[in-house]
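[Automated response] Your request has been received and processed.

Submitted sequence:
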Amino acid sequence: MSSNIRRYRQTKIVATLGPASGDPVMMRQLFEAGVDVFRLNFSHGSHEAHKKNVDTARALEKEFGRPVCLMGDMQGPKLRIGRFVNDAIDLVEGQAFRFDMDEALGDETRVQLPHPEVLEAMEVGSEILLDDGKVRVEITAKDANGLDSKVMAGSKLSNNKGFNIPGVILPIEALTEKDKIDLEAAIEMGVDWIAQSFVQRAEDVIMAQNLIKGRAALLAKIEKPSAVENIDAIIEVVDGIMIARGDLGVEIPPEQVPSVQKKLVRKVRHAGKPVIVATQMLESMVDNARPTRAEASDVATAVYDGADAVMLSAETAVGQYPLEAVGIMNRICESTESDKNYRRIMNADHPKTGNDASAAITVAATYTAQDINAAAIVNYTTSGSTTRRTVRQRPDVPILCLTPNASTARQLMMSFGVRTFEIENVDRFKKAVEVAVRVVKENGYAQKGDKIVLTAGVPFGVSGTTNILRIADID
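Generated structure:
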């Protein structure tokens, strides 16, 4: 039960595995450096490679006595144009350009757009953003075979570039056939979270939940303006949210991204579900050993916003300095959380209980821990609901989750401030107190003379019955 790894920050770190990090030695170093969640990107790599990384993570669990959380990230639909005769073309602002279904190689006048559903959904006046927004065209005419457009910005376009269509809800399923195969494979491997791309509506999430059937938690990636518009309905049916600022930052004006990020973090936090801020957080560290000041500020902003986790993508997947990227992100999180302004921000926004007795207990636990200077808040939970309620309050002490359920222990490693421990079943509150005291002492969270705040639900094992708050002395 004792773990020889100790994190001194509340915000969690997600790191993407890839060629730069997907081997047992580097995974171990990344874990020791601060990674709480490993992301398996199913847009790249084989199932065999991902399975090896899952096995390595589970070996780390046994070695360190600490749950390791794994996220399987689905690719989602990829909207791409076709190819060109000479692989690329030059564009001139104001020129005419056509998108059609013809499979012939493109030139300076046209290119294939092999997505009939996109052609159908577009209207005159709509915009297409290509190559992450570097090229922008406006639709000037539409017929049964294609779209005519005018180039508004951009000078080059090459083979198979992706495109985005701001403000248009596309009649495309969020899970492709590849995703469905990958999802099943990821669950069979034993991932704890599935991340779903291209979410536009709550119905997209429900479709994924029907395939997962409770075997993993589901994270919706918010990367479309339509998802932002439908965020309340999406939050209602999903287990967590990733703010994927890459595609989102292409489809909405960049000046709106910071305010959207703050709004989403607050909404998801108040719902008691984990929220990850992702994409380009330390992007320059793909090639450089140190981040820019702006990137350090970006990570700190996500922490000040109250995000559960911050994520590294290319930095650890293909970058030259994966270990350094984790190390600096760890230090940024620790430094930000030590700022007095950070605690003022967290304390200024405690979600309301909504007449929920279980939520009221966890709110009381937070204030009690603060008033008596407790060393930790300890939750007993089977499903994780008690701990998620506690997390909503963003207490300034560690949240220790004690659970007999291995999947609960792993999934909660995504959540702010939570340290999880898989324990034996307990059926009496007196026994629960004894186990809690032993765990906090063995793992260095409290010592003789300290106090802890303990919450639990009686009868044990019944979800949503948090009804006891107890202060325990460490002797």
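Summary generated for your ticket: The first strand starts at residue 12 and ends at 17. The chain has 17 helices and 21 strands.
If you did not submit this request, please reply to this message.
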